[in-house]
Design goal:
Blueprint lengths: L3 E6 L7 E4 L14 E7 L6 E6 L3 E5 L4 E4 L10 E11 L2 E5 L6 E6 L6
Parallel strand pairs: 1-9
Antiparallel strand pairs: 2-6, 3-4, 3-7, 5-6, 7-8, 7-9
């Protein structure tokens, strides 16, 4: 997965964070029969903004590795740059996507014009 930057404003919960889970060779990962969780971390200090959760995660294309996370207000209430990860579970074993740290960047921008 190439580096993907998704930009939101503080409070934006309408748009999902969507990706295609791929191996380093570019092949999509089948999500059929898997449990997928989302996690979001502040890379500057390691603070976990969204603990690994399957709530709000939807597999939109199992055969093609397509998945999305629908954030709630608490996920996008603080401006900053975060790294997002999707954890794909088979039983208790899991694999993290994107494989390279920092390949999913979620930028939450302040918006002084929102009431």
């Amino acid at each position: 997965m190439a580096v993907q930057r998704q930009v939101r404003h503080v409070g934006d919960t309408l748009s999902a964070i969507a990706v295609t889970c791929k191996r380093p060779n570019g092949n999509a990962v089948s999500l059929a029969g898997k449990t997928v969780k989302f996690r979001m971390v502040n890379p500057e200090d390691g603070t976990v903004k969204v603990a690994a959760t399957s709530t709000g995660v939807s597999v939109t294309g199992a055969a093609d590795g397509q998945v999305q996370y629908n954030p709630v207000a608490a996920d996008v209430n603080t401006a900053g740059t975060y790294y997002g990860y999707f954890l794909v579970y088979s039983g208790t074993d899991y694999e993290t996507f994107p494989v390279a740290t920092g390949d999913l960047i979620i930028q939450i921008s302040p918006d002084e014009n929102v009431p």
